[in-house]
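Record format v2
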Amino acid sequence: MDFVGNHILSVSQFDRDDIERVFEVADMMRPYAHREVVTRVLEGAILGNMFFEPSTRTRVSFGCAFNLLGGEVRETTEVRASSLAKGESLFDTARVLSGYSDVIVMRHELEGSVQQFAKASRCPVLNAGDGANEHPSQALLDLYTIKRELATHGKTIDGMRITLIGDLKYGRAVHSLVQMLTLYSNIRVSLISAPELALPSRYIDALRLSGHEVIESDRLEDGIAQADILYVTRTQEERFGSQAEADKYKGIYKVNRNIYTEFCEPNTVIMHPLPRDSRENASDLDADLNENPNLAIFRQTDNGVLIRMALFALILDVVGQISRHSRKVNWYTAKRF
Amino acid sequence: MDFVGNHILSVSQFDRDDIERVFEVADMMRPYAHREVVTRVLEGAILGNMFFEPSTRTRVSFGCAFNLLGGEVRETTEVRASSLAKGESLFDTARVLSGYSDVIVMRHELEGSVQQFAKASRCPVLNAGDGANEHPSQALLDLYTIKRELATHGKTIDGMRITLIGDLKYGRAVHSLVQMLTLYSNIRVSLISAPELALPSRYIDALRLSGHEVIESDRLEDGIAQADILYVTRTQEERFGSQAEADKYKGIYKVNRNIYTEFCEPNTVIMHPLPRDSRENASDLDADLNENPNLAIFRQTDNGVLIRMALFALILDVVGQISRHSRKVNWYTAKRF
Amino acid sequence: MDFVGNHILSVSQFDRDDIERVFEVADMMRPYAHREVVTRVLEGAILGNMFFEPSTRTRVSFGCAFNLLGGEVRETTEVRASSLAKGESLFDTARVLSGYSDVIVMRHELEGSVQQFAKASRCPVLNAGDGANEHPSQALLDLYTIKRELATHGKTIDGMRITLIGDLKYGRAVHSLVQMLTLYSNIRVSLISAPELALPSRYIDALRLSGHEVIESDRLEDGIAQADILYVTRTQEERFGSQAEADKYKGIYKVNRNIYTEFCEPNTVIMHPLPRDSRENASDLDADLNENPNLAIFRQTDNGVLIRMALFALILDVVGQISRHSRKVNWYTAKRF
């Protein structure tokens, strides 16, 4: 894929080379995101960070990524604050807003809305989530985290063993990750979920067609025993008919310290797309694992900034110029990464 | 008018020379807004973008205009998020907020509120809409668009034929535009509306006093036949007693491709202050005109950025310094203007 | 206290030397806040301005302070817009958000929440108000204002006479100010409140233990007669069981022009933490004092920017570098400070 000037709407746009290109640029972004070096390469550029559905983490992550490249961010955070409420079409909204900024990041509750918006937009659009449909930067940051975590143990995505746990039916992050895994080879994928929340069969078929081994189970202990990666997800409550219906599935596959210690191999990496529900009886990933060095959930969100910086740099064609606009950070920075 | 350090509260502040001065500076802003060149002339300056009533388009347009000049933007988007809810007076709010920034843009639902705020403010204030009252930058961008569109056909505002369509009673944009037209000469103004939504007589009188020809009709076909500009407006639903009352007038003067092709001269320019209501039976300007090159509605919003940049540059007295702080854009920019 | 890299969570962190250090740096910030000089010392740094409870003034003040040092601001303004609603713990929120910025300012309605957040944060956190508990930058700006106002009359905090008026039971600003006063010597503190809204005895004890004179009264005239500073507060309505309960206390100690002229010494300074309630029968500090030069309430909010700039500069360790990154302001600035 040619990144320059293009929309990023779906994981299906990426082949393996594209993914590797994003990861390579993300690696370059590390000293900037970690505040060792400052770059001003996008000084004067404007991001329209359009969140018509709330998402603090994703919104701030994209905004910071753009700031870290030196650009400015103009933001919208609510559907009520928009002309959509007066019957304005996505076509009009896109035509207007794309005259205001150099690139747009958009989240919207309706599936397909971002794609529709992008068609009318006069500048590149990055999909930050359209309902239950796509959220490609999440899939990229997940896969990037998997790659980096495995590398510290001398392993690669090819040949890895990954276990997906929880709501595999509605979890957008899981679906996108699975799609990307089909580009790699020789993976053993274990699926742990309540039968009603199983991974849809088209994803299972795609994994098998790619030559991967797929094991389904509703017993947590089976699935996590021999795994390099545990990918735990929360129940997507908002997709259920009622809260009571959703509650039936909350916390039934809870990964905690006891279970991890008893069943997992020593270096099994724990991931989660966040937010995790930390309320009593609802948590899918217990806080008693917070000090476990294999808990990679905050390295995931840290990596999200790198991936988003990389996407901006590729789309706006400044990868080769970043270091030229750099200098050392001159303020206190915590050793936090 | 001396722009430097002054408030911009009303179209009545502008004489013809003032308008021409704004347009001249807006023309200078084009390469910056179109991302050919970056200027940092306002680097370090702060805009307080205070929207106590939601308006995504206007808010982002002002914010981007300030960013394009190199300045920073601090924003407020909701009346609930403010001390107004605790009984704070506009005087106090203005005194406090004007200590935080170099210039303030303000929108508020109450008529006269921005003027009251400006009286207490210690820095210049731009009115971005006070209820049904004033929205001067909208009037300026409309007139600027008319001027530029006509120029491509070898015409001028003096001597033009313009048709105003829709809710002429409550439409703030129409009222402000009409006021500005009185500064020009020899215009033929056609007014098309339901009798109950006719342009108030004081505006009609003002137009006639300026020597313009005014024609009133409730038949769309009559008014659009020989026009240089169609200015279509939506029904200002929020001004009616009930939704049912408002719905009676929605979409009764619908301009679409068939009507345009049958009745209009080939180069008649189509304008609209936006948002347009694109819902079935409600639209006043049909989407089937979207590919018509005479549809100027998105050039209007693009021009809004130029006009707002010009107002900032004039008020903050940096017009003469802009080019000195400039350099070429170094990132990918779509050919979108 | 070593400021560099530390959280600012409570007034109890500060000894007298710390306070003087903040004030010294705040003094240095004056030409930057007053737009005579621009500094870019924090260019490339990012503030996470996290307001999980609305507060326009405090939020914009912190944001502008960071912009004035050259940094960027990413903002969150609503609890509904956050993952907290999905059961995310403050630990997770802190871990994630502290990977996005160099420093975080946080306001939250729950007492102790900011402290809990800070524990998990990987970057310095400034408490901008946790419920009725702490708001240290407000206390610092109040004390800084007192110091500067007194200095113009040749007086100092040591030895001053201050009168605290209104809701002394629930007023967070009053409690924090009182705590700081215990670090100074020989102050006469007059307390004027309804008996039910008296200053809690632990604060009175602390003042007396520090050797200060404390006088309690429920008669306004007694307390304001011989004072250098009047510190008027509003009734903290949100802390009462019902609106009717709160209304009983609103506006009963109203300071206005008549009372000031009749009872106060000529140069008595009038302060208020704002917002003041300006509604009829509710106001605690009348608008008829707005033109009185001793009314320091807007100098307080102006000073807030200086104090917040100082805190950022100290925590991020750039105090010594500010002037090196400076240049003259090149745009129009009102003479407003």
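Chain C has eleven helices and eleven strands.
The interface with chain A takes residues 4-5, 41-46, 48, 72, 74-78, 80-83, 86-89, 91-92, 95-102, 122-124, 315-318, 321 of chain C (CB under 8 Å).
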